[in-house]
Design brief:
DctP_fam; single chain; 48% helix; alpha/beta; globular
Length: 336
């Protein structure tokens, strides 16, 4: 005998079906990983490219299936220096940005583009982990809508020249076309060193050195090795003019859409990645002088105090210093 369904039974069945559909939809939504597209000009062999893989692997370990991290190397997605604007427009989720990039929009940040201010990698980490760093990170979040996750050591920048002329003082760089990235902060540093700062995209530097479009470039030693600039240059001058940083960052809209737990996982993964980069890069730098000498390059230290004085005087007399918070240089110097 067929049992007739009452109106109440039909309502219960319909409600159960709707609940099942809702739970299924919720599970499907929760299962969709958060896509994080990262753009960098770094080549695959460079440590700050490898650290992105560490970041990706760490997230997969601590938050399996929650993130889909896409790493785009060699400026294949966005050109160097355009990443902040891409994140602000919502076209990019993550990038490694420089203080020079930030200073274009927040002039106070130009203090971290100044030569001979940050002493070494340890000092760099301590400065950005201090109240000073948190204050400057907040500027970026508030004014640029970008969340800085952590700072990584990019290396200590040295001069890498195609000529044989020995460089002892800043005067010896007079007329030398020194490639610098194309921003006011970078070009100022190149000119402050005594050279003729010339803007050129990173991907064009090797050919520029080869053809004589530029006479030299400045980068940390691991980068010189990774992109094989030593093949088209003759000397490295150990000016130690900038202890450089790279900031692993995320578009704030992307960051704010994450749950608190996901934000914590992202922060932890960033810390693991930058620690990996720093350890490898510092060890690499220690061994590279001998490597470049074995490749036939001259590697030597110039009159660093002369360079330091010229560069620091140039900054203190510049318009950049007018934008620096009062007492910031003394505060940074006081961090031990």
């Amino acid at each position: 005998m067929t049992k007739l369904l009452t109106g109440r039974s039909l309502v219960k069945i319909a409600s159960a079906a709707l609940c099942t559909l809702a739970l299924s939809a919720t599970s499907s939504f929760a299962a969709d990983p958060v896509k994080l597209r990262i753009s960098t000009p770094a080549v695959e062999s460079d440590w700050h490219a490898k650290m992105l893989t560490v970041f990706k692997d760490e997230l997969e370990k601590t938050a399996p299936g929650e993130f889909d991290v896409e790493i785009h190397l060699n400026a294949s997605l966005f050109k160097q220096g355009t990443e902040p604007a891409a994140m602000q427009r919502g076209n990019l989720d993550m990038a490694m940005i420089s203080a020079q990039d930030i200073a274009k929009q927040i002039p106070a940040w130009s203090v971290f583009t100044a030569g001979y201010l940050i002493r070494d990698p340890d000092h760099q980490k301590k400065v950005f982990n201090s109240d000073i760093g948190q204050k400057f990170y907040k500027m970026v979040a508030d004014d640029m809508n970008i969340e800085i996750l952590d700072v990584g050591y990019l290396g200590t920048r040295e001069l890498n020249l195609a000529s044989d002329k020995k460089i002892t003082t800043p005067d010896d760089l007079d007329g030398v076309k020194l490639r610098m990235p194309g921003s006011d902060a970078w070009l100022f540093l190149g000119n402050a060193l005594g050279a003729d700062a010339t803007p050129l995209a990173f991907g064009e530097v090797y050919t520029g050195l080869q053809t004589g479009t530029i006479d030299g470039q400045d980068n940390p030693l691991p980068t010189v090795k990774a992109v094989k600039f030593y093949e088209v240059t003759k000397q490295i001058v150990l000016t130690d003019h900038l202890v450089d940083a790279i900031f692993l960052s995320m578009a704030k809209d992307t960051y704010d859409d994450l749950s608190a737990e996901q934000q914590e996982k992202v922060q932890e993964a960033a810390a693991v990645a930058t620690a990996y980069n720093n350890e490898k890069r510092i060890a690499d730098e220690k061994s590279l002088v001998d490597f470049f000498k074995s490749e036939g390059l001259k590697v030597y230290a110039p009159d660093v105090p002369a360079f330091r004085k010229k560069v620091q005087d140039a900054y203190l007399e510049s318009e950049f210093a007018q934008d620096w918070p009062d007492g910031i240089v003394d505060q940074i110097n006081a961090v031990k």
